[in-house]
Amino acid sequence: MNRILAVHSSPRGERSHSRRLAEVFLDACLAAHPGAELTRREVGRGFIPHVNEAFVAAAFYPQPASRPLSMQADLALSDVLVDEVLGHELLVISAPMYNFSVPSGLKAWIDQIVRMGRTFDIIEDNGIAQYQPLVWGKRAVIITSRGGHGFGPEGPNAAFNHADTLLRTALGFIGIEDISVVAAEGEESDNQAFQASCVAAERQLRVLAEQLR
Ligand SMILES: Cc1cc2nc3c(=O)[nH]c(=O)nc-3n(C[C@H](O)[C@H](O)[C@H](O)COP(=O)(O)O)c2cc1C
């Protein structure tokens, strides 16, 4: 575990709990794995463009090897973001829950890194298109903060949690299936309960950092 890519998606800066928890985890990782390199990608306070028509035409161009220069330019940022994912062993995503899903900047980032021919492929099997992941040997840690309660797998609001499922599905689709989710819940309610949830999340993150190999 030498290279860590941290993707931060809260539009908040110092007031962001998901960012603060991510720093706890990253500090613990760097302490437990001296020599590990950390790269950061800002998608919450920086601009990641939405997919547009030019992007779709370029990404699904039938002969990628002879893609025209203008199309290569349309994919330039996507190529950088894909290279970042491919060039790191551990992906750390910090994300608030927004309207039961992830902030739009993080969704835009996902749309840029799920790329045919780069992170997944489609192969024909008896005339039926099959998806094939192209990313191997990586793991991801998702660090999230939620205003409400009960969005964990056994919680009463689990069915409303489209954030974890989106990230697990999209990352799994490209081949990253070793995924841990650590959450703090309840920012919008009782402060004491939220603080306790943050302390529990920090403990979990420190243990996880020690366990990473
Ligand atoms: C636009 C917006 C939408 C939100 N939607 C939800 C939601 O669906 N469920 C929830 O539990 N909290 C929701 N929240 C609360 C945030 O998840 C919570 O404040 C979280 O701690 C923010 O993360 P951050 O501190 O890293 O910015 C929402 C907050 C905002 C600003």
Automatic annotation (TrEMBL):
Signal peptide region: none
Enzyme Commission code: 1.6.5.-, 1.7.1.17
Cofactor: FMN
Amino-acid positions noted as binding FMN in the UniProt annotation, renumbered to this chain: 10, 16-18, 97-100, 145-148
Cofactor binding note of this UniProt entry: Binds 1 FMN per subunit.
Enzymatic reactions: N,N-dimethyl-1,4-phenylenediamine + anthranilate + 2 NAD(+) = 2-(4-dimethylaminophenyl)diazenylbenzoate + 2 NADH + 2 H(+); 2 a quinone + NADH + H(+) = 2 a 1,4-benzosemiquinone + NAD(+)
Superkingdom: Bacteria
GO molecular function, one term: FMN binding
Residues covered by the Flavodoxin-like fold domain: 3-202
Entry keyword set: Flavoprotein, FMN, NAD, Oxidoreductase
Quaternary organization: Homodimer.
Xref: HAMAP family: Azoreductase_type1
Function: Quinone reductase that provides resistance to thiol-specific stress caused by electrophilic quinones.
Family according to the record: Belongs to the azoreductase type 1 family.
Protein name: FMN dependent NADH:quinone oxidoreductase
The organism of origin for this protein: Pseudomonas taeanensis MS-3
Phylogenetic lineage: Bacteria, Pseudomonadati, Pseudomonadota, Gammaproteobacteria, Pseudomonadales
Gene: azoR
